[in-house]
Amino acid sequence: MKMTFQIKHTKHNLLGSNYLKILIIFLIILVVFLVFSILGSARSLVSDFFSPFVKGGNYFYKSLELVPQFFADRNKIISENQNLLDQIENNRLDLIDYESIKSENQRLREELKIKPVGNLVSVSIIARSPQIPLDSLLLDNGTSNGINNDDLVLAGERILIGKIVKTSKNIATVSLSSFAGTISYGFVARTKEPLEIKGIGGGGLEVKIPIDFDIVVGDKIMVGGPLELVVAVVGAIEEDRSSGFKNAMMSLPVNISKINTVFIYHTIKE
User: How far apart (Å, rounded) are the C-alpha atoms in residues 69 and 83?
Assistant: First the structure.
């Protein structure tokens, strides 16, 4: 018996299984790429999130490194401050000693009537402003000790502060060179240029001079006579160029409130 078989023709896909393999490989690559991209973004987010903490930690650790230096500098400053405080305290004690010695010296001068070399009589001040008129002094001696009107009153061997204007047996009144309206004739010690100076009160004196007159702050003003005495010290100069003059403002050579004894210059009759 003869058998007949029908041959079935199968159409072959051009891509076939190779196409499927390529597609699978492509999908794998794409998935890997996406995974790494997602992981990269995640790492970036994580990095950004923790970055402040990392920086803070770095700052903290750097700060810790400075702690020993901070305490070293602090201890140094404390030591320097203590040294300065010790110096201030020593200076304060030295000043107290100086004032004590100065006060004791003044007391001894008054008790022993120590006076500068020369024909001078030492007397004590018993009153001053505001007890009596400004730029005046009241002394504890008068004519009984040979003190007379117009005698010169000194605060030291070469320092003139005024003159006697009124006397009684046991009291003498001094008008200071700075008494308002008092005129004194002297000269600049540095240049010997003559001046007419006027008292303006409160321990002050002044002189009005041409703007080109040679006088500077710190110049001493002297008066002549039997003794050359310092009567004032220039403290300030005010110029008025429109008028062509300037004012030299002066003060007495000493602070009157700081002295308790003065010296009277006069001729003692044998």
Answer: 21
Q: Give me the phi and psi of 104, to 5 degrees please.
A: -65, -40
Do both 144 and 251 map to the same domain? yes
> Are 204 and 254 found together in one domain?
yes
**Domain count within the chain:** 2
Using CA atoms, how far residue 232 sits from 83, 104, 222, 260, in Å, is 42, 28, 7, 19
Of 87, 112, 137, the residue at which a domain comes to its end is: 112
Angle 171-232-198 from CA coordinates, rounded to 5°: 80
Residue 191 DSSP one-character state: T
Is residue 129 located within the same domain as residue 106? no
**Whole-angstrom Cα distance, residue 119 to residue 140?**
19
Query: Using an 8 Å Cβ cutoff, are 95 and 102 in contact?
Result: no
The residue range of the domain holding 230 is 120-265
Residues 156, 254 contacting (CB under 8 angstroms): yes
CA 120 → CA 19, 111, 164, distances in Å?
A: 137, 16, 14
Q: Which of 68, 85, 112 is the last residue of a domain?
A: 112
User: What is the rounded average pLDDT of the residues 12-27?
Assistant: 65
If you search the block for the tokens 């220039």, which residue do you land on? 234
Q: Answer for the pair 245, 210: CB distance below 8 angstroms, yes or no.
A: yes
Q: What is residue 9's DSSP assignment?
A: P
Name the residue among 210, 154, 148 with its Cα closest to residue 177: 154
Q: Are residues 251 and 183 in the same domain?
A: yes
Could you read off the pLDDT of 96-137 as tens digits, one per residue?
666 556 555 555 555 554 455 456 788 999 999 889 999 999
Are 164 and 148 in contact by the 8 Å Cβ rule? The answer is yes
Q: Is residue 270 part of a domain?
A: no
Instruction: Quote the pTM value.
Output: 0.56
Nearest of 168, 170, 164 to residue 136 by alpha carbon: 164
